[in-house]
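About this split. The held-out portion is used to measure sequence recovery: a designer receives only the structure tokens and must propose an amino acid at every position. Recovery is the fraction of positions where the proposal matches the reference. Here is one held-out target exactly as it appears in the evaluation file.
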């Protein structure tokens, strides 16, 4: 099974997908799957998510914050993957630049997008600061990272603008921080269950597990296809790009 790209799925889409996956597993009547700790955990976390996050999501403020956080997460993930893709470049200078860029990101951890809002903001600002330093200019130029840096900077500012609109409302801040934690907890449980299914498919080598894996993949593909598309950075036109 392919790794699910959560940044491509909205809050409501994730809730819908989880319910469909749970229903599919229950209908499979695969006792090992239904009785597994991974599936039970997914059910528990999903219950909290459905009662908590989706209800909170009705708040326009919470909705806007979560959407802006998803946008910056999407760009951050794309930025990281764009750098990693250059590890395989046949050109030594590009491969070397990618390794140096990756070292900068690794200073701040590989799962920044799973942190609480305030911590994620702190690390994104530090990442932007590092890549804007003169000593990183050659890396940015070699890998053409300017478009990603500009997009991450813009998305971070948009997030801060929305988030700051109620900085004096501690109840609202607590609400969205809770929503963020619950969403990320669901993503973790969801991934753990999919890994479990993939492992059982390999170990058991039975048609039942193969069929279940295929059905779950179809559910994932259907929701991702129907849901919103991931945000992609638009090139910022400068005098240099216009001349080109």
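Reference sequence for scoring:
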């Amino acid at each position: 099974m392919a790794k699910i790209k959560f940044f491509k799925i909205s809050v409501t889409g994730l809730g819908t997908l989880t319910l469909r996956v749970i229903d599919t597993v229950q209908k499979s009547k695969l006792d090992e799957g239904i009785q597994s700790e991974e599936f039970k955990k997914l059910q528990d976390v999903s219950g909290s998510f459905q009662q908590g996050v989706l209800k909170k999501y009705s708040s326009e403020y919470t909705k806007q914050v979560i959407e802006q956080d998803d946008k910056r997460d999407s760009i951050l993930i794309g930025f990281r993957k764009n750098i990693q893709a250059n590890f395989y470049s046949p050109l030594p200078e590009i491969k070397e630049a990618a390794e140096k860029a990756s070292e900068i990101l690794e200073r701040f951890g590989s799962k920044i997008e799973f942190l609480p809002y305030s911590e994620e903001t702190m690390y994104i600002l530090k990442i932007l600061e590092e890549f804007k330093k003169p000593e990183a200019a050659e890396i940015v130029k070699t890998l053409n990272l300017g478009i990603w840096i500009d997009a991450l900077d813009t998305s971070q500012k948009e997030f801060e603008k929305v988030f700051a609109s109620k900085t004096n409302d501690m109840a609202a801040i607590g609400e969205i921080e809770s929503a963020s934690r619950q969403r990320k907890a669901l993503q973790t449980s969801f991934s753990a269950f999919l890994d479990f299914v993939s492992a059982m498919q390999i170990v058991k080598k039975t048609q039942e597990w193969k069929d279940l894996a295929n059905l779950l993949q179809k559910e994932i593909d259907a929701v991702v296809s129907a849901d919103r598309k991931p945000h992609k950075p638009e090139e910022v036109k400068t005098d240099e790009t216009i001349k080109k």
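Annotator remark: The mean pLDDT is 82.
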